[in-house]
Amino acid sequence: MRPRNTCKQELVQQKAIEMLVTDGFEGFSVNKLAKACKISVATLYIYYKDKDDLIIQIAIQEAGKMSREMLLDFHPDLSLEEGLRIQWRNRYRYQIENPLMALLFEQLRSSTYQEKIFAAILGPFKESMGRFLRNAIERGEMAKMPLEVFWSIAYAPLYNLLRFHHEGRSIGGKPFEVKDKMVWQTFDLVLKALKL
């Protein structure tokens, strides 16, 4: 068995991400990927068992990076406002700096790969965010509510702005590019909605 070439593996990962975003899961194939990377299909099998293994490994690796980015400078004992502000900053920055991965994660959320990928990375992230919410409720900074309601109020507005940004258009097809001022104006409204 030939040894792994890290540069080649990085190229494979980057091309796979690009192709998955542009062609979708149905249009993606190992043969197309090998051709795009100018390598043999056999070389891909040094790194991955099959197409599913390739998608899952890349997604888990990237989801781990995203999870670490979201927890950067974040601590569950922060106040609701400070912790949420850091979460927004981290999520906003990650999505702007990694537009292809942002789009790929959207595809993965509605795919059969979802459970395998997100279950692999949720541990520390889920624990930290859970503690943050419990602390905010215990301190009386926000009312107790189902997680889905919290997420819909706390993060959905940010992700909608980012979706419009990645698509390059807003409602009605108007050209759209997200601006910092817009993000933080939305954040202020979200914070008002969450606070008691």
Describe the structure.
By secondary structure, this protein is mainly alpha-helical. The protein has helices spanning 6-27, 30-37, 41-47, 51-70, 80-97, 99-109, 114-138, 147-154, 156-167, 180-194. Helix 5 packs parallel to helix 9. It has two domains: 1-47, Orthogonal Bundle (Arc Repressor Mutant, subunit A); 48-194, Tetracycline Repressor, domain 2, CATH 1.10.357.10. The chain is built from ten helices and no strands.
In a nutshell, what does this entry contain?
This protein has about 200 residues and is mostly helical.
Q: Which consecutive residue ranges, at least 5 long each, have pLDDT under 50? A: none
Distance between the termini: 62 Å
Q: Helix/strand-derived class? A: mainly alpha
- Mean of residue pLDDT values: 93
* Beta-strand proportion: under 5%
CATH topology of the largest domain: Tetracycline Repressor, domain 2
**Overall radius of gyration:** 19 Å
The strand count comes to 0
Helical amount: over 70%
Would you identify the CATH H-level superfamily of the largest domain? Answer: Tetracycline Repressor, domain 2
Number of domains: 2
- Tally of DSSP helical segments: 10
The coarse overall form would be: globular
The largest β sheet comes out as: none
For the record, the CATH architecture of the largest domain stands as Orthogonal Bundle
- The H-and-E topology, N to C, reads as HHHHHHHHHH
CATH class of the largest domain equals Mainly Alpha
DNA-binding region: 29-48
InterPro entries: Homeodomain-like_sf, HTH-type_Tx_Regulator, HTH_TetR, Tet_transcr_reg_TetR-rel_C_sf
GO molecular function: DNA binding
Domain HTH tetR-type: 6-66
